Amino acid sequence: MMIMMTMMRSSYLINVMVVLLFLLCFGPLNRASGRSSRSASLMKLTVPLSLDVNDPGAIEMANFAVTENNKRTNGNLKLTQILRCSGLGYAFGNFYFFKLLAMDAIQQTNTYSAKVHQFLLPNSSYTLQCFQLLS
User: Fold this and answer.
1) Which of 23, 48, 61, 102 would be a feasible disulfide site paired with 77, CB 3.0-4.6 Å?
2) What average pLDDT does range 6-30 have in this prediction?
């Protein structure tokens, strides 16, 4: 067990060092084009992710978004359907964008958008970045 933990930590540190080395090598390329912000260099390294609305991971994240919004707003929404989902992968995690239907306490269904961030290192946790009513 201890050997596995040591190997996992070593693997984690190697991955972090490779990502940092990559950012140090290719991050300065944006400065030549007139951009100087760090976020601009990270956004250049994004990869589009395609998600199926019926994928168990997408459903889990959409449920997380609704539940987290309920905690923040003291609401009582229930996810009824995911209309669309997409994502962007970057060096340290992924951003997922949802358009979904949720029902409130008076049985009225509305359309919402949600943005969920999944931080990949070290434990793949989610945070709700944005949740708003569309209609």
Assistant:
1) 102
2) 50
In one-letter notation, the amino acid at residue 69 is N
Distance CA 32, CA 25 (A): 13
Strand partners, 95: 88, 117
Q: What tokens appear for 19 in the block?
A: 């990502």
Higher per-residue confidence, 106 vs 9 = 106
Task: Using DSSP, state whether 135 is helix, strand or coil.
Answer: coil
The residues spanned by each domain of the chain are 1-45, 46-135
Structure tokens at 110: 């509305």
Q: What pLDDT is stored for residue 125 in this prediction?
A: 86
CA dist 39 and 71 (Å) reads 29
Between CA 123 and CA 67 the distance in angstroms is 20
CATH 3.10.450.10, applies to 46-135: yes
**Contact (Cβ atoms closer than 8 angstroms) between residue 110 and residue 67:** no
Average of pLDDT values for 26-49? 54
Q: Which pLDDT score is estimated for 37?
A: 47
Residues 6+ apart with CB under 8 A from 65: 98, 100, 114, 116, 128, 131
